[in-house]
Amino acid sequence: MKLLEERILKDGKIGQGDVLKVDSFLNHQIDVAFVQELGKEFHRLFADCGVNKILTIEASGIGIACLTAQYFNCPVVFAKKTKTNNIYSDVYTSQVDSYTHSRTYDIVVSSEFLKSGDRVLIIDDFLAKGSALLALLSLIRAANAEVVGAGIVIEKAYQQGGQLVRNMGVRVESLARIASMSVEEGITFVG
Amino acid sequence: MKLLEERILKDGKIGQGDVLKVDSFLNHQIDVAFVQELGKEFHRLFADCGVNKILTIEASGIGIACLTAQYFNCPVVFAKKTKTNNIYSDVYTSQVDSYTHSRTYDIVVSSEFLKSGDRVLIIDDFLAKGSALLALLSLIRAANAEVVGAGIVIEKAYQQGGQLVRNMGVRVESLARIASMSVEEGITFVG
Fold first, then answer.
1. B97: distance to nearest CA of chain A, Å?
2. Chain A positions in Cβ-Cβ contact with residue B183 (cut-off 8 Å)
3. Contact residues for B33 (Cβ-Cβ < 8 A; gap 6+)
4. CB contact under 8 A, A29 and B87
5. Residue A27: is its pLDDT beyond 80?
6. CB-CB neighbors (< 8 A) of A30 in chain B
7. Can you give the CATH number for the domain in which B161 is found?
8. How many distinct structural domains can be found in chain B?
9. By residue range, what is the domain housing residue B61?
């Protein structure tokens, strides 16, 4: 998506440890009008798939998921990162190895909100090693719901997560696919 | 707001320890079409206040804030709950005593995204003892930005947070104000 690639080149900042900071428009400050355009693109890509639920993971996926769900006329469910004392019904649980936070954590989703018969689109901001995406897929599988695909804003295509998940037969649509990234050479995109 | 009160009576669940669960439409599953209506109401209330930024706190405030910000044509900034290793610029920090999670944590916002001259509307899902709201106000003060007010979805009016913040001269608009709540007697609203 040209609009997104241009925005990444303009406002993305490459940090230590292969970090791409897009804090100014995507995951700390959210440029809502811009993210609406991403949502419209996800809708264009998955419009015919009978999506009735969007699944994401807190925190930075939530805004993107909500602004996308409007175009599908469906609710959002976000997986929570720890079991808090106000989720007291049955939950599905999975585990994520966070690259950004250098730790492992559990995610949970209440079984009330993910059910057999649901046609679920996963939305998330980043796909790199694929740990969050694999964990979300595992929640969907546990609920016996159907995964329609995953809509990712930025994929680090030089890491293995995207390939791994596509090899599982899951449709992954990434709006920007980074081929290479370094402080010295900047960012290049796939294709 | 009648629509919201009816929804709370219909779908809210009262849990142990004064917890009101609105997980089915507000803060785990998000009924996006419904939250759009809340956003329109916040816009009606604060339309003339020159709002150029909406500030919230992860995670459950983010969806509401994004769906509200559309009507103000402004960005959202969400305060993060811990200092992660991909926020490496200057930050403002404040502390929240979480009732729900029975712990104290820091919230941070990058100084890039909250500045002198900003006219900030705070959006959050709940107001009870006021700890999160006070922490957000403190971030705004630290940034030397101006607070326009706070838009809260559900206020537990029998707790002291709302009064405390209003006494500071901050305009607080809560779309539903709970007067009393118990498993035995159910929920009553103010007014």
1. 15
2. none
3. A70, A73
4. no
5. yes
6. 62, 66, 69, 75-78
7. 3.40.50.2020
8. 1
9. 2-189
